[in-house]
Amino acid sequence: MTALVVAAAVVAGAFWWSLWEYGLHRFAFHVPRGKWFGSKEHLNHHVHAGWNMDPLMLLLWLGVALSGLGWGSLVTRITGSGAAGIAFGAGWALAYYFYEWQHRSAHVHRPRNRWQRWMRLHHFHHHFGHPMANQGVSVPWWDVVFRTLEEPGRVKVPRRLAMPWLLDEHGEVRPEYADDYVLVGRAGERPRAAVDSEDKVRAYANLAPGEDAVT
User: Fold this and answer.
1) What would you measure as the largest C-alpha separation in the chain, in angstroms?
2) Residue 118 above 70 pLDDT?
3) Would the N or C end of the chain have less CB density within 10 A of its end CB?
4) Which residues, 6 or more positions from 75, have their beta carbon under 8 angstroms from its beta carbon?
5) What is the per-residue pLDDT across 63-94, written as a single tens digit (0 to 9) for each?
6) Of 165, 168, 156, the residue nearest 50 (C-alpha)
7) DSSP-assigned states of every residue in the chain
8) pLDDT at 109 over 90
9) For residues 36 and 94, what is the distance between their CA atoms, to the nearest angstrom?
10) Any residues with CB less than 8 A from the CB of 83 and at least 6 apart, and which?
11) Is 147 left (phi over 0), alpha (psi -120 to 50) or beta?
């Protein structure tokens, strides 16, 4: 019975993280439109649509681990079971790290299975189609519940923001991804500084990036 309780608590903790993943992404990062540090950092991620390791991530990871301990302590008090509390906190933290790993992979690595293909389409529609849709990154069910789910169709990717794994040696969409993505904009069309400035304005207004591109 203890093993069953522990397994259920791990799943419950992971499920609890999935709600926070949605809520933080939508209400803490997008809705404030850059009015606090976390929102600014996230919207700057939209400006560049890339992934770089920031030392601040180490503090975030530590914070998630500590919050997992906090949730675990709360569950222990409610249930009277230390095993359930530890498992719940572990499920929360592991689900977060899984989300973070998959989010990074979406930006830097090609999809390797059907789920990863879905996740990238779902997420890049959020980046390049409608930033207030598809707020869940790793799972879609809270988008269904809160009616923010949109089917991506064929995602239009501005050339300047294209993921490295999407492009062939000529800078065009690889044939295996042509049904899912299309590049928009022409290289060198406008000065880079002007496009960067416009991208930031649009990102902070929760709008998709413009389709102009630069070298």
Assistant:
1) 65
2) yes
3) N
4) 9, 81, 84, 85, 88, 89
5) 888 888 888 888 889 888 888 899 999 999 99
6) 165
7) -HHHHHHHHHHHHHHHHHHHHHHIIIIIIITTTSSSHHHHHHHHHHHH------THHHHHHHHHHHHHHHHHHHHHHHHS-HHHHHHHHHHHHHHHHHHHHHHHHHHHS---SHHHHHHHHHHHHHHHT-TTS---SS--HHHHHTT------SEEEEGGG--GGGB-TTSSB-GGGTTTEEEES-TTSS-HHHHHHHHHHHHHTT-PPPS----
8) yes
9) 27
10) 2, 5, 6, 9
11) left
Q: In whole numbers, what is the pLDDT of the chain averaged over residues?
A: 89
pTM, to two decimals = 0.89
**Pairwise CA distance, residues 147 & 170, whole Å:** 39
Residue 93 CB neighbour total at 10 angstroms: 22
Residue-level pLDDT at 215: 46
Query: Which residue reads 């799943």 in tokens?
Result: 11
Roughly what angle, to the nearest 10 degrees, separates helices 82-108 and 2-23? 50
- Provide the β-strand partners of residue 74: none
Question: Which of these, 1, 143, 139, lies nearest to 81 by C-alpha position?
Answer: 1
Rounded CA gap, 105 and 2, in Å?
Answer: 35
Tokens for 91? Answer: 């499920």
